[in-house]
Specification:
The chain is of the alpha/beta class. It has a single domain, classed as Alpha-Beta Barrel (TIM Barrel), CATH 3.20.20.80. The protein is globular. Keywords: Glycosidase, Hydrolase, Signal.
């Protein structure tokens, strides 16, 4: 009887460990972007409370915001925080500026759970800020290490699909030759520091760029809407864009000299990525941008399915997103994707087409626009 009891206890212990491991991989993988370009938004304290009430365990900020950092203190909400683009030059040119930035925006808030510092969001390599991104990343990383935070805060940057020369099929994706000077040292740096690349994955923009060839259900991540690309079945457009980045980054790193003969299993498995995604729920019907389109290469004659930026489509996309980020992609099966939804609220001061001001998933009064649940 005692042996049977011990066997039962061991079985339950193993089951419990597996259950905890499963929770670790699936719970809290999805966070939201807290943008502040609005005149009617709740304050930081109310917003942080809303995060806690809805089990949102990750937040992304575009830049440091002291009131929000104070509100986050002691909450254990994991933070991805950006660097203001206006600071990039100084951070790149002056290590002392990076030291001061870390002291001002990280060390002053010891009870905030900083996880990632994003140095530059979708910076065009050919813009005047392009040359400053990588040296700014280096200086911020060194300042964080000197401050004793290197073990818990990682430094990265955020890139978008326009840096790719093609992205479909994903296996053939590659960065534009004109941006190799920009992306290669960044990827080598991230591999060396074991930090993830942050990528912006917006099926919404891919769809409005190529409505004729991309079905709406595929862009909304609907089940049973997949296609075969390059001999590989892809369940949804989010997976396609994700794996296109993986393939393009892998090609760059394969051409670089290995860091050492004793790489860790994590490094051998390939660089990790984190993503931001979203979809507008209103505004004027989305029209294709005038230039910069990367066609979705499919042999199909599918016609446009109509406007994508509706409240019902946003509900469909967000709820499907909660499902698809848990299971991994064809290139990374079984590996959940840490993802940040853009955005927590509509921002009525955000520039651009009207739909840019309708990406929020909550109303300013804290009510969700549509039913969803953070796992």
């Amino acid at each position: 009887m005692a042996a049977t009891d011990n066997h039962f206890k061991l079985t339950m212990l193993l089951f419990g460990l597996l259950f905890v491991a499963s929770l670790h991989l699936t719970v809290g993988q999805v966070g939201t972007f807290f943008g502040r370009l609005g005149t009617n938004l709740p304050g930081p304290a109310a917003t942080v409370t809303l995060y806690q009430q809805n089990n949102i365990r990750r937040m992304r900020l575009f830049d440091p915001h002291a009131p929000t950092l104070r509100a986050l203190s002691g909450t254990n909400i994991r933070l991805m925080m950006g660097v203001s683009h206006s600071d990039l030059r100084d951070l790149a040119n002056c290590p002392q500026a990076a030291t001061a930035w870390v002291r001002q925006n990280i060390l002053r808030f010891p009870n905030v759970t900083f996880r990632y510092i994003i140095v530059g969001n979708e910076i065009d390599p050919n813009s005047e800020l392009g040359p400053f991104v990588f040296p700014a990343m280096q200086n911020v990383y060194r300042a964080i290490r000197v401050a004793g935070q290197g073990g818990r805060v990682q430094v990265s940057t955020s890139i978008q699909i326009s840096l790719l020369s093609r992205w479909s099929p994903p296996q053939l994706a590659a960065f534009k030759c004109s941006v190799n000077w920009f992306i290669r040292p960044i990827l080598e740096f991230l591999r060396e520091t074991r930090a993830p690349m942050h990528i912006n994955i917006f099926p919404f923009y891919a769809y409005i760029n190529d409505r004729r060839n991309i079905n709406l259900s595929f862009a909304l991540l609907q089940p049973n809407s997949g296609v075969v690309l390059g001999g590989v079945y892809y369940d949804n457009l989010f997976y396609v864009i994700h794996d296109a980045f993986i393939a393009a980054m892998t090609k760059i790193l394969a051409a670089a000299s290995p860091l050492s003969l004793q790489q860790t299993p994590e490094m051998q498995a390939g660089m990790e990525v984190k993503g931001t995604t979203g979809i507008p729920s209103g505004g004027e019907n989305a029209a294709p941008p005038p230039e910069g389109s990367i066609p979705f290469e499919r042999n199909t004659t599918a016609l446009s399915d109509g406007p994508i930026n509706t409240n019902n489509n946003a509900r469909t996309y967000i709820n499907n997103l909660m499902r698809v980020v848990r299971t991994g992609t064809p290139m990374r099966p079984g590996r959940p994707i840490e993802t940040y939804i853009f955005s927590m609220f509509d921002e009525n001061l955000r520039p651009g087409p009207d739909y840019e001001r309708h990406f929020g998933i909550f109303l300013p009064n804290g009510q969700p626009k549509f039913p969803f649940r953070f796992r």
